[in-house]
Amino acid sequence: MSALKELIEGLFIGFSTTVGVISTYQTLVSCAGLFRKNEAITTEPKKTFAVLIAAHNESAVIGPLIENLKKLDYPREMYDIFVICDNCTDNTAEIVRQHGVYACERFDTSKRGKGYGIEWMLENLWAMPRQYDAVVMFDADNLVEKNFLMAMNDRLCKGARVIQAYLDSKNPFDSWITLSYAVTYWFTNRMWQLARHNLGLPNTLGGTGLCIESDLLKEMGWGATSLTEDLEFATRCIERGIYPTWCHDTKVYDEKPIDLKSSMRQRLRWMQGHYDVAGRYIGSVVKNGVKQRRIGMFDSAFYLFQPMYVLIVSLMSLLFIGRFFEWGTFNTVSYLPDWAVYGSTALFYLLPVLALFLEKVPLRGYLGLLLLPIFFLTWLPIFIYAFFTKNNQEWSHTVHTRSIRIEEMQ
């Protein structure tokens, strides 16, 4: 029994040390999101854009997005809109043509998924007579602020090569699930994305609302066909020393699943893709970080490690419970000064509140903070199941139905 007790003791110390180091690092980095640099959009329109919309049976939502994109505050002759009608069995392509933009139909059931659709579209795009300075990518359920291309043009002209826009929710108050998503995104936008941008660390790509320099795409190739094509492409960029950057000055609104079942299916796909990409790239990212002495690469590896970190926290909690009941009351922080314990705990709970305040979220949005512990619990079975099914690369479609126009969002 003593040997088992020593093993559990050792595991607990190892896990708690890992959790402490990672949590401290993330908390300190998040504090950089408390301020925002002045990055005014000052550049006149210079860049041309190919605007790609990934769509699979999106007849319910594609119309409002096309109408939205045709009215952006950017010279209409400097961008073209291409809708990737990927294995559609509805009238998505017909609606696209009625709106006067390019309907690019693809039928290949052996290569299903957004990543394959984008790769196919880019191959066709490079063969066209007209070439573009940059490619912008959206999902069919999105809505976009009118200054989007002006903001991307500005960042490109100032040297950025891969840019992620602010990701917001199109339907935050439809259900407790959508509100939980929204709060998570509001916090992440401020305390993860903006914080890292302020510190010069690489940002993550969110699958939509991103802009990529065409020359970089031609040089690297898309090559991102996993379930999380955004994470895969971003990691490949970071591996090369090209850091995706953040644009806090323009928003993309994304539709979130309303019910728990659809939400868990979507998040399972995300996590399966995350584990897959982490397994293939985390070693090379760390190796390059050591060779080039670039902290940004280590930070990217830290992000790839995030799901494992959550599993460690969960396992450590179970060990703590077992330890508590077997050996009586146990104070895990007895060797730490009180100010460090209470200060870090207070900051941990305060940062989400500050994020919502700084992002000027409506008061009812703060109710989502009370829902986050419940929402987090729904993640745990996803993290565990995804770990054991990470080799499953079968793409699943999230159905979108909220046909909202940008004027309603504003």
Topology overview:
Layout: H1 2-30, E1 49-55, H2 62-70, E2 79-86, H3 92-98, E3 102-106, H4 114-126, E4 134-139, E5 143-144, H5 148-157, E6 162-169, H6 176-199, E7 210-213, H7 214-220, H8 229-239, E8 245-254, H9 260-292, H10 295-304, H11 306-327, H12 338-358, H13 367-388, H14 406-409
What do these coordinates show?
- With 410 residues, this protein is of the alpha/beta class.
- The protein has a domain at 49-177 and 201-257: Alpha-Beta Complex (Spore Coat Polysaccharide Biosynthesis Protein SpsA, Chain A), CATH 3.90.550.
- Helices cover 54% and strands 12% of the residues.
- The protein has 14 helices and 8 strands.
- Strands 3-2-1-4-7-6-8-5 form an 8-stranded mixed beta sheet, sandwiched between helices.
- Helix 9 (260-292) runs antiparallel to helix 10 (295-304).
- The chain is globular.
How far apart, in Å, are the first and last alpha carbons?
64 Å
- The value of Rg in angstroms is 22 Å
Mean pLDDT: 87
**Spatial shape:** globular
Major pleated sheet:
8 strands, mixed
**What's the total count of β strands?**
8
Helix content: 40-55%
Give the SSE order as H and E letters: HEHEHEHEEHEHEHHEHHHHHH
